[in-house]
Amino acid sequence: MALFDLPLEELRDYRSESAEPEGFDAFWSKTLQEAREHDLNARFEPVDAGLATVDVYDVTFAGYGGHPVKAWFCVPADATEPLPLVVEFVGYGGGRGLPHEHLLWASSGRAHLVMDTRGQGSAWGGGGGTPDPVGSAPAFPGFMTRGIEAPESYYYRRVFTDGVRAVEAARSHPLADASRTVVLGGSQGGGISIAVAGLVPDLAGAAPDVPFLCDFPRATTMTDRHPYREIGLFLKTHRGRTADVLRTLSYFDGVHFAARATAPALFSAALEDQVCPPSTVFAAFNAWTHDDKQIEVYDFNDHEGGGPYQEAAKLAWLRDRA
């Protein structure tokens, strides 16, 4: 599809109409406090993945509700001192996959943890291994409407909490330099990284690519592509619940987390992206309050965004930060 959203000059000034809910900070403070009542219990089990230049650990830690969450932790094979740390979150439907799918960041001389997304990991890639033991009221197939009847029960309350705990787990490893921690990911992973950046105050950076889960009021009415379309199809059946659903989503909108982030940021957006329309990405970027922020724009790309070009941009950007 050709350009369908606002012109680039208008995107650079665009502000979301997403209203911050009352008690946003109290909700997340209570959520994380409850999660931390469970022992993090981060375990790193060495794995022979057949790789000569990277050491791999199979990680399990306690996420939301104390539920076990899986991850891979990779470091350069010759590492003996603490390294800059990259914590990565994956796109919608994917899981942590297999270790050899995640060589970039350890190959750049960093410690790298990639978190499984609970309940996902069966749509693409090498799969996942983290169940979501929490049920929900009736929902549209997918994850976007699970527990959407209230913020307390919404699926992404658990996922974002897992993301914060993933940072804590990765920082507990002796080869991780906690003071040089960066969070990143694409699409859903970008949305999770924005949320974590808004909840963890001492990060060295955040690099969300074509992030999902931002500016829900606009996204849900602008695109008919999944996953956002799951919300519209849910409301097509459950007539009259739009206000309640948008209230729940407001507690998980990347725009509000971006306004609380205190780390430098490198975003990316694609102007033909029908999954995460560029205005929704700019909504989060423009809400980001740290002065050290920049956004790479890919004029003629859809949701693949910058792909390997953006990876190169992140490698260059991280040289001065982690």
Describe the structure.
This protein is α/β, with parallel strands linked by helices. It has a single domain (8-318), classed as Rossmann fold (3-Layer(aba) Sandwich), CATH 3.40.50. The chain is built from eleven helices and nine strands. It has helices at residues 8-11, 24-35, 104-107, 155-171, 188-199, 216-222, 228-237, 242-250, 254-258, 278-287, 308-318, and strands spanning 43-47, 54-62, 68-76, 83-89, 111-115, 176-186, 205-209, 265-270, 293-298. It has a nine-stranded mixed sheet with strand order 1-2-3-5-4-6-7-8-9, with helices on both faces. The longest helix has 17 residues, at 155-171. 51% of the residues are buried.
Question: Which terms summarize this structure?
Answer:
Rossmann fold; nine-stranded mixed beta sheet
Protein topology:
Layout: H1 8-11, H2 24-35, E1 43-47, E2 54-62, E3 68-76, E4 83-89, H3 104-107, E5 111-115, H4 155-171, E6 176-186, H5 188-199, E7 205-209, H6 216-222, H7 228-237, H8 242-250, H9 254-258, E8 265-270, H10 278-287, E9 293-298, H11 308-318
Parallel strand pairs: 4-5, 4-6, 6-7, 7-8, 8-9
Antiparallel strand pairs: 1-2, 2-3, 3-5
Helix pairs in contact: 4-5, 6-7
